[in-house]
């Protein structure tokens, strides 16, 4: 099992030859020779899967302890983690998104060059304006990607919606909609 150390910014550092091993699994970002940094959702996922042990001040943190720490320190962590875990369990490759709202890039199976989707997390019942949805859709399109809304239901299941922009056409006076 790989060992990591919780840093003050809540990321997890893996050093030595294990850093390259974990990077080869598709997790973290290399930060120098033989040093890898895992984002909180990556670290929790690997702990939950039994592939990583995280220590803080020499003490091992279990899944629940790590989850409690992250959920109390990072706004919206639980929703983002549930989505991340769901995508990883579907065996898709993910990368860090451009910001906290579009927090994940998702690659098509077999592709490693360019992500196809940017993921926007929402919790069931969480309001979002049409303007914000359009803005995020345009932001995704400007980067050559599609916007994927990931909605976490109260039971913890994730439902995905592909968000595409369309230009509705008004019927001319005297015509029925759809004709023309």
**Average pLDDT for all residues:** 90
- Topology as H/E string? EEHEEHEEHHEEEHEE
- Given the structure, what is the number of helices? 5
Oligomer: single chain
Which stretches are low in confidence, meaning pLDDT under 50 for 5 or more residues running? none
Distinctive features:
6-stranded mixed sheet; 2 domains; MutS, DNA mismatch repair protein, domain I; alpha+beta; Trna Endonuclease, Chain: A, domain 1; 11 strands; 180 residues; 5 helices
Summarize the structure.
30% of the residues lie in helices and 27% in strands. It is built from five helices and eleven strands, in the order E-E-H-E-E-H-E-E-H-H-E-E-E-H-E-E.
Q: Would you give an account of this structure?
A:
There is one protein chain. This protein has two domains: 2-72, tRNA intron endonuclease, N-terminal domain (MutS, DNA mismatch repair protein, domain I); 76-163, Trna Endonuclease, Chain: A, domain 1 (3-Layer(aba) Sandwich), CATH 3.40.1350.150. It has five helices and eleven strands. It has helices at 17-24, 40-48, 63-73, 77-89, 130-142, and strands at 2-6, 12-15, 29-30, 35-38, 52-56, 59-61, 94-96, 104-106, 117-123, 146-152, 158-163. Helix 5 (130-142) links the parallel strand 9 (117-123) and strand 10 (146-152). The radius of gyration is 20 Å and the shape is globular. The model has no long low-confidence stretch (mean pLDDT 90).
Secondary structure elements and their pairing?
Elements: E1 2-6, E2 12-15, H1 17-24, E3 29-30, E4 35-38, H2 40-48, E5 52-56, E6 59-61, H3 63-73, H4 77-89, E7 94-96, E8 104-106, E9 117-123, H5 130-142, E10 146-152, E11 158-163
Parallel strand pairs: 1-5, 9-10
Antiparallel strand pairs: 1-2, 2-4, 3-4, 5-6, 7-8, 8-9, 10-11
Helix pairs in contact: 2-3, 2-4
């Amino acid at each position: 099992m790989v060992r990591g150390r919780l840093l003050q910014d809540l990321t997890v550092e893996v050093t030595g030859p294990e850093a390259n091993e974990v990077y080869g699994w598709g997790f973290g970002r290399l930060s120098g020779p033989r040093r890898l940094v895992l984002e909180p959702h990556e670290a929790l996922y690997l702990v939950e899967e039994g592939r990583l042990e995280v220590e803080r001040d020499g003490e091992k943190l279990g899944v629940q302890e790590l989850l409690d720490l992250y959920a109390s320190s990072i706004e919206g962590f639980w929703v983002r983690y549930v989505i991340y875990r769901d995508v990883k369990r579907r065996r898709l490759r993910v990368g860090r998104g451009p910001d906290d709202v579009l927090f994940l890039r998702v690659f098509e199976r077999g592709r490693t060059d360019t992500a196809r989707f940017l993921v926007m997390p929402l919790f069931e019942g969480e309001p979002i304006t049409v303007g914000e949805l359009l803005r995020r859709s345009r932001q995704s399109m400007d980067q050559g990607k599609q916007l994927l809304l990931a909605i976490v239901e109260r039971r913890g299941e994730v439902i995905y919606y592909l968000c595409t922009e369309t230009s509705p056409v008004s019927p001319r006076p005297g015509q029925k909609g759809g004709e023309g």
